[in-house]
Queue: 4 jobs
Job 1
Amino acid sequence: MKKHWIVICFANFFIASLMGLLLRWMYVAPIEGVNFQFLMHGHSHVAMLGWVYMMLYCLIIYNFVPKEAQQKRIYNRLFWITEVAVIGMMLDFPAQGYAFVSILFSTLHIFCSYYFARLIWKEAKPPTFPEKRMLRTALLFMVFSTFGVWCLGPAVGLLGKSSAFYQICIQYFLHFQFNGWFLFAVLALFFQQIKLKIDEKKFRLFYTLFVIATIMTLALPVSWFLTNPVFYWINVVGVLLQLVAAVLFIQNTGSQLRVFFGTLSSLEKTVYGFALFSLVLKIGIQLVVLLPELAQMSHQIRNFVIGYIHLTMLGIITGFLFGFALQHQFLNTKNAFHKGGIQVFLIGFVTTEILLFLQGLYLYFDTGALPYYYLSLFIGSVPLTVGLLIITVNLLIQLKRKQVVTQNYPI
């Protein structure tokens, strides 16, 4: 795997965070000539497809594709074609929103992901059954999630953007990206890190419950647009199955997790701890939202929605990705810039999550707004961008130094 791939991933993440910071500032002082909605589309696409997708691309190849197969040119070519698609979305979404060019680059990214799924399905060699099953399920969820994207055109043409069908298509894509493709992929990688040993029957039970729960919890966002009570009860069953799956997993792997954490550096423990705590918190929030009144309110109060998305994206997914990067020494625990950058990033994450959920509670109890909320949220978001800037710049400097050494002292 190419070292500069990781630099590209972090550069994408930094740019996505910069867009997010600008979005936060626009609540404080609107910027003339910048369309908030267009910029938000650019921010979300680059964060999901430029950071998480590209980082999973790198890590899956590094961990599961045999070393000799990694040398094939197709992986490098596919990486750069996919990055071209990311750059196209990065530039065009903030400028035009959903328009011909941005849709073209989004479509290119989808076809690249299909080809990637085919390559990994054929060439990946996970050493254990749980890793193989989780990885392949992640790839299937990735492909299934795109069905929602293909339905957007007909939804607009037939019923319009304000229709329930259009909104459900978006929620379908997001649900199976975050809770399917992203989560199952990082768990497959995590199982590989902890060298998971579990009885196959017990794993199959955990896996079956987890997959069913992932599918059934789609009912919650569907219930926001279709009022039939059956969706509420489907979500209830899904959340309870997810809880049972989580309990079963902890019961069967608790001792292995303790051994694994005993081998980690303090920074690695912190990062993985954040990821696992965020995952527990996510399940807890889903349990709380089983209350009918809160189920509807969770969608109506935007602060809760953004806080929940960032909890999943920055807390769980990014937490695991940082952990993998540290363990594989793409980031160095002894490097002051890498360590400081991650710590600054985590400070920003915790600060913004507290502000988002606290403001959501203020709105829920109809007590108005936090004093200087938008300004505080902007200031709290600065460490996210600064932390990523520190990491990205240092990775670039290290890459340049390595290139200079290679040129001066060729092997």
Note: The mean pLDDT is 91.
Job 2
Amino acid sequence: MLRSLGLLGPTGNMLPVKVVTTLTNGEKVTGNLSYTYHSLDNWQRGEEIDGMEFTLRNNLVSEYRYVLTYLGI
């Protein structure tokens, strides 16, 4: 999944924005996803940069932040 998120880029319109999961006790957890894309301008060979960041917030007052980094070859 992470690979496809990185390949779709900022023009992708197929990225999920809401995920609903049911816990074993029957409680539903709703997660909302948001995406931020960082500019790849002036990306140098051998330089590692943050390419995309996504944040997951759910109704249990939890927040998770993930960053996809790119290494210039």
Note: Residues 2-8 form the longest helix (7 residues).
Job 3
Amino acid sequence: MTQDIHIIGGGLAGSEAAWQLAEAGFKVRLSEMRGAPADRGGEMTPAHQTDGLAELVCSNSFRSDDADSNAVGLIHQEMRTLGSLILREADIHKVPAGSALAVDRDGFSAGVTAALEGHPNITVVRERVDTLPDTPVIVATGPLTAAGLASSIGSATGADSLAFFDAIAPIVHFDSIDMDTAWFQSRWNKGEGKDYINCALNQEQYIAFHTGLIEGEKTEFKEWEQNTPYFEGCMPIEVAASRGVDTLRYGPMKPVGLDDPRTGRWPYAVVQLRQDNASGTLWNIVGFQTKLKHSEQVRLFRTIPGLENAEFARLGGLHRNTFIRSPELLDPTLRLKSRPNVRFAGQITGCEGYVESAAVGLMAGRFAVAELGGRAMTPPPVTTALGALLHHITGAAIADTYQPMNVNFGLFPPIPGRTKKADRKKMYTDRARTALGDWLAVA
């Protein structure tokens, strides 16, 4: 098949970009190195476990689905409006998670893979690409870009990539959880009310657990990994614990809104687990991304009441993420200023999170559709969630201190005048919906 555009990387961003282009009638070559034979440079990343497209590696949650008062929920809604494959498959493979959108990760990846491989305008090629082509291309290789292509990108940008660490939370088999000790409940009984498993700790147990996190044996850094900063939104739990003895009780182990059925009161601290697959056989420990050694994880996490006999489907891990200095390198349509045939999408641009990665892939795909069709396309208004995220990536952020960012209302232009916080969120989302509708009418 003769290609109109080449997409490198079959993660969430590359998959979404390919779908947008193919649905618009353009021929796409989608290259993915996972699953490629040895003579094509097949390579697995330190974080992935399968060769499925759009594999989710550190969580199964797309976070809040509240489109009226949450910026993440709003971007979900905007992506659905624009025909997102990622959100379509997330909705199909949804599992209970309160007011959040969480998915069966295997079913989700299988659904995306089947949709892309079955599309007549997409050719999925299992191969590693080591150099940037001179033809139209979208680079969506994510935070674990292979060394050869990373070097080619470095040569094209004339700037060193930045990097940070991203840690993976462990997953527990449900049948190994002691449900006589743990209980089902969502915080404040939101969603279905029973979307999380809760394990309560008293003060003595919490202090011992905190000490174990601080003193536990950690993964050692390689020389080239020294002084690489963490992303605040995916902080390893032992790093957060080092900031103070009560830090976790105001973070992933906060007990508010949860009533221990044995006492009728809020516990001193709580460990929560969220359903990880549709059948409910796997549950991930919320906020427990970690760089503890595996043996330390098993020993320490089995001190949590209810997890004394826990069997782990996956233990936590650590991998290095790389992203470019997008605010100075990319134009408002995600093209590399020094080589306009190259667009970037997803986490390599410096966005953070599954949803944001797919959203940037969606925008890159739509910009490419317009360009290949011989027309100009104005970026979405900065008052929309998509536009606010894009604006941050391509110029609003300070390049010298650029760090990965989730979508949030802080990226939006302020609402004029003095308003209550609760009202302000609804004003943001109402304004965004109007702006998106106006943009679509002329885009």
Note: The first helix runs from residue 12 to 23.
Job 4
Amino acid sequence: MKYHPIDRQLFIKNRAKFTAQMKPNSVAIFNSNDIYPVSADSTLPFAQHRDIFYLSGVDQEESILLLFPDAPYENQREMLFLKETSEHIAIWEGEKLTKERAFEVSGIKTVHWLQDFEKVLFELMTYSDTIYINTNEHYRATVETETREARFVKWWKEKYPAHQVAKSNPILQRLRSVKETEELDLIQNACNITEKGFRRLLPFVKPNIMEYEIEAELIHEFIRNRSKGFAYTPIIASGNNANVLHYIENNQQCKAGDLILLDVAAEYANYSSDLTRTIPVSGRYSDRQKAVYNAVLRVKNEATKMLTPGTLWKQYHLEVGKIMTSELLGLGLLDKADVQNENPDWPAYKKYFMHGTSHHMGLDTHDYGKLTEPMQANMVFTVEPGIYIPAEGFGIRLEDNVVVQETGEPFNLMRNIPIEIEEIEALMNS
């Protein structure tokens, strides 16, 4: 891996938090992701399932984590099952985890080769009553591919139909949403790498540059700082492309006078950052662009102050909508009649700001978190209001990542990334 080793104490703590919430006499199993085929012998780059990484630090395909805190023997309470490595595999594919190295990474002493999994599991099933299966229950999830986890669940249910079934996901939704100090440090590192990319970019952007040239500058800076690359598919949207919320073609020329909406950020050690800035192709904002930009910035700053312990996500978005409505009235994009006659299910401001303001962030860019439960300290949220005006040929979104504090305003992990108009213009013209 490109990233520096992570202290295994993080994964030891994470397992302890999870097992403390398991039912008596139960087993929990977590599988790595598959390596997905493209065609012929080509595959997509491997990306580890975040749950097994969160609980073990294992960042390798064909791995299984098994937790059985009430097992009769101590060496059965935490187990890793890994693809057996060999000299041949090391030559052709590169180094894989040995049993000794797996312990160093995870803190798990009992490590088996994967070929022994079914035999070991059979014995543990004779001792246990319940198995925790790890289904994907994220509110944004749309999964059409059968995952390694899904295949395991089908196999297990057929093999052991008399056992009770429980779900890992509700536990993980709560645990993963509240970050440990070590996790906050990793996310901060991802944000710092993102900052380096953005600062590299500002003096580079000029009229007639292609969107993909900007993408290339960013990936260069990210990788040279130990990131695997983008935390998500980058959006580099010049001109009216910014009004397509998930524009990812990045193949158009950036024209003088236009704005570029950049929703781009680095990952580090599987942890995400999530940045949006909107910059002028020519290095200067027009008066109208400045007015809209500063309106979005004011909404972002006011919304950020509301991310405090006890806040409910739904109520928070209602309050942000009121602030945005006021700004849109000031810009002349809405009038009082629009607001008075609005549909409560789709308020007038949604014509220009149609997405949510914040989401959980961490190991996933849209991370785990129960949206129906109050916010807590050490949750990490994005704050990303925007105003999109197709009729005027531009859209503006601004986004930072913040940590909810016990008291006071959130801590901004992107506090050092330029956002004020004057600083951006100065750096672009330096």
Note: The first strand starts at residue 26 and ends at 31.
